[in-house]
């Protein structure tokens, strides 16, 4: 295009402007400008496409990691291979909801569920039984025995006139750490111990939770954690199975 431009120019000192020459020069310059603009556009398009692809990939990754729906959790209980279901998502108010449910044998009452909210997907929840971790379950039993041994020793003194509010005997509740039950701040342990008989009223179970320091993250913001009111078991005595459900929520921020 530059050659065409200069071919239309007269030798030095002999510049004679005419309508025809001016028109040719304008066309040449316009063609040059349009060609360069096209090159700029062509060079820019791959960058735009790459940016869009990167944005799409990143957004897709966030969406995938934001929720885990219906993930299977496999474990052994009562000689049976069982598959539970794990769900995990954050709602629009900044609360993280975590839940686990499984259909298990109706007479099984000794198990522990350990959540780790910081663990990668696939490792967020573990189900422990006597068949998979007898040592851990025995630690829970010793802890239970210690609690039951001290529960009757907290006796208020009501003698004399009125209620003094003074304790006759004070035995502090046992600490789970003293029995080797130590959990990370990101872990929550839900456990059940005991016996279930063949009739609905023949129950002797002890359940509770340990750890779960992460549940307090929203306290400073006035965003308390909580559990679902429907937590627990629903029984199918005819088929000798029960559906165990446990869910909780806590604030993680928007």
Notes on the structure:
- The chain has 254 residues and is an alpha+beta fold.
- Strands 1, 2, 3, 10, 11 and 12 form a six-stranded antiparallel sheet that branches. A four-stranded antiparallel sheet has the order 5-4-8-9, covered by helices on one side. A two-stranded antiparallel ribbon has the order 6-7.
- It is built from three helices and twelve strands; from the N terminus they run H-H-E-E-E-E-E-H-E-E-E-E-E-E-E.
- Residues 1-17 and 35-65 have low confidence and may be disordered.
- Strand 2 (80-90) and strand 3 form a beta hairpin.
Give me a quick take on this structure:
The chain has 254 residues and is an alpha+beta fold.
Please give the structural blueprint.
Elements: H1 2-7, H2 19-66, E1 67-77, E2 80-90, E3 95-105, E4 111-116, E5 125-128, H3 134-150, E6 155-156, E7 167-169, E8 187-196, E9 203-211, E10 226-227, E11 232-236, E12 241-251
């Amino acid at each position: 295009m530059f050659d065409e431009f200069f071919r239309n120019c007269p030798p030095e000192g002999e510049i004679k402007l005419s309508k025809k020459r001016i028109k040719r020069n304008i066309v040449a310059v316009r063609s040059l400008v349009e060609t360069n603009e096209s090159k700029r556009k062509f060079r820019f398009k791959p960058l735009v496409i790459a940016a869009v692809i990167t944005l799409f990939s990143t957004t897709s990754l966030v969406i995938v990691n934001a929720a885990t729906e219906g993930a299977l959790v496999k474990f052994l209980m009562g000689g049976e291979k069982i598959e539970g279901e794990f769900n995990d998502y954050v709602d629009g108010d900044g609360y993280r909801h975590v839940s686990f449910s499984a259909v298990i044998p109706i007479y099984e009452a000794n198990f522990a569920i350990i959540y780790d909210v910081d663990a990668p997907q696939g490792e967020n929840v573990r189900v422990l039984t006597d068949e998979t971790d007898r040592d851990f379950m025995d630690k829970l039993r010793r802890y239970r025995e210690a609690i039951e041994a001290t529960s009757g020793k907290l006796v208020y003194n009501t003698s004399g006139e009125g209620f003094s509010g003074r304790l006759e005997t004070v035995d502090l509740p046992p600490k789970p750490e003293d029995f080797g039950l130590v959990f990370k701040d990101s872990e929550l342990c839900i456990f059940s111990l005991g016996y279930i008989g063949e009739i609905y009223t023949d129950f002797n179970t002890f359940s509770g939770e340990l750890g779960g320091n992460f549940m307090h993250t929203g306290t400073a913001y006035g965003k308390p954690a909580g559990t679902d009111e429907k937590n627990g078991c629903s029984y199918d005595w005819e088929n000798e199975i029960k559906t165990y459900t446990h869910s909780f929520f806590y604030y993680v921020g928007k």
